[in-house]
Design a protein that fits this description.
It is a single chain. The chain is mostly helical. The chain is 65% helix and 4% strand. A hairpin with a 3-residue loop joins β2 and β3. The longest helix is centred in the middle third of the chain and has 25 residues. The N terminus and C terminus are likely disordered.
Length: 231
Amino acid sequence: MALLETPETEQDPYETLRDGLIWGRWKSGERLKPQHLEGEIGCSRAALREALLRLAGEGFVQAEKHFGFRATEHSEEVFRQAAHLRQLLEGEGALLSLSRGDFDWELALNAAHHNLAYVEVQMAGATDLLPYVKRWSRQDWLFHEALLSACGSEMLVKSCKAAFDTFRMYAVSQIREFGFSPTTRDEHQAIYDAAIARDTDACLKAIDVHLALYQDRNRSNVKGNKSGGKG
């Protein structure tokens, strides 16, 4: 069952689908039926197919002969690889940003962290996290992007985004509470505090702790239904 909000209108179908796959609007392994998606996101059949083919090329959906498209169902091993890649790339990006970032970078990082922390405070006190997942996924990336934004390498940031998206797509679908836990906010705070203090050792350590999710039993427990009943 898809996680639905209000119908999309006049949106880029590629961006709408990609964003929805990352935060769990369409679940891992779910069949993506054009006859439903056209009205749901408000686009033509041709534009929808073009977007799905582009996403298939990026690994977010799979094309099935005679059956159309299905959201990619990532394995736990792929998730671990994505987490490790994020550790490597974000660590390198953080080192560069901490050495090059100016006051404007600090302002952007502060704003991104403030927005993320606000959402996480609401989540920490909520009994139902589902209404927050979309905003949290977006703010989570915007915080990490802000951290990396002074690194001077657009290619590195793009690579981080690709790893982040694969990581998040698995987490929201297969990990309890969508990958959120009471310690998540503290981990982001530790990354922020170290970055603002230009403490590279502490920042790298905080990133490593944050991304070693599969070693944290509170967040690595997989949901009971990993693959059944989709699409």
